[in-house]
Design brief:
- The protein has 276 residues and is an all-alpha fold.
- It folds into 2 domains: 163 residues, Four Helix Bundle (Hemerythrin (Met), subunit A); 81 residues, Arc Repressor Mutant, subunit A (Orthogonal Bundle), CATH 1.10.10.
- 64% of the residues lie in helices and 3% in strands.
- The chain contains 12 helices and 2 strands, in the order ααααββαααααααα.
- It has a two-stranded antiparallel sheet.
- Helix 5 crosses helix 12.
- The longest helix has 25 residues.
């Protein structure tokens, strides 16, 4: 279940009006939170490199995958292309990416973790952790809203798209295939809401918990996490297909704790490296 830090789990849950106010604050918030704010430190390239290493460590980008291009990264992080170029060079120097030339060239992820990763993860996540905990909780509430709405509005076409994505996830043989199928399933659930504003809110929350990168953190290849996600996807689908809005919402709220659990484990791993 989603829990607000500092609030007892038996406390009265937010009312519809409370949730509406929370969503309104997110939608109307023109000031970006620290996880998305422009990089402003003594060494901008160091901060960019740290954030990119952390994004790779938490599975925003997987081994073998191409990072976004310089122009896109500069836009995401609100820095210059020269700064991005310097940061990518640092990732190359520590063995996290390799640079390929040609039409399909770019920076390709070689490894999720190297000797330099733990320090970068600590520097990136520790200062942001209190806010990330709040964002994890809010994201669960938002995804519960998404699933409840989908259960009330889904069409036969929506359900068919969910089934295709479920089949893709069940047949996935690599972490990359899992990530693609996972995104397809949740995209189909979002489409079933029939409300672009709800979809935009969900994607905004994803970007915020992913350090500004618009992809789901996916951690490392873990058979237990895969089986848990597969089972939960099926249960969410069954609740939506049955039109059981409350069950769908509760299941979705629980399902999206996978992200916070994974990122917490990555931070603990980085801290353990420091203690050695």
């Amino acid at each position: 279940m989603c829990n607000v830090p500092g609030v007892h789990p038996d406390a009265t849950p937010p009312t519809t009006d409370d949730l509406s106010r929370m969503l309104g604050q997110v939608l109307g918030d023109t000031a970006q939170p620290s996880v998305l704010s422009p990089v402003k430190v003594q060494s901008v390239a160091t901060e960019v490199a740290d954030r990119l290493m952390t994004a790779v460590a938490i599975g925003d980008y997987l081994p073998g995958e191409r990072l976004p291009g310089e122009r896109e990264l500069a836009t995401i992080l609100d820095v210059s292309r020269a700064t991005v170029r310097e940061a990518i060079g640092r990732l190359q120097a520590v063995g996290i990416v390799e640079i390929k030339r040609g039409r399909t060239g770019g920076a390709y992820v070689r490894a999720s973790w190297t000797e330099a990763t733990a320090s970068a993860v600590r520097r990136t996540l520790l200062p942001r952790w209190p806010e990330l905990e709040q964002l994890f909780d809010l994201r669960c509430l938002v995804e519960g809203l998404v699933a409840r709405t989908a259960a009330l509005r889904r069409t036969d076409e929506d359900l068919a798209a969910m089934r295709v994505a479920l089949d893709g996830y069940a047949q996935a043989r690599t972490l990359g295939q899992e990530q693609v199928a996972d995104a397809a399933f949740h995209g189909a659930v979002l489409a079933a809401t029939g409300n672009p504003k709800i979809s935009a809110l969900s994607r905004d929350m994803l970007t915020r918990v992913s350090l500004g990168f618009p992809v789901e953190p996916y951690g490392e290849d873990d058979p237990e996490d895969y089986q848990r996600a597969l089972i939960e996807h099926r249960k969410i689908y069954e609740a939506i297909a049955a039109g059981d809005a409350e069950q769908a919402g509760s299941l979705a709220e629980e399902h999206f704790t996978l992200t916070s659990d994974m990122m917490r484990a990555m931070l603990e791993r980085a801290q353990e490296r420091a203690a050695r």
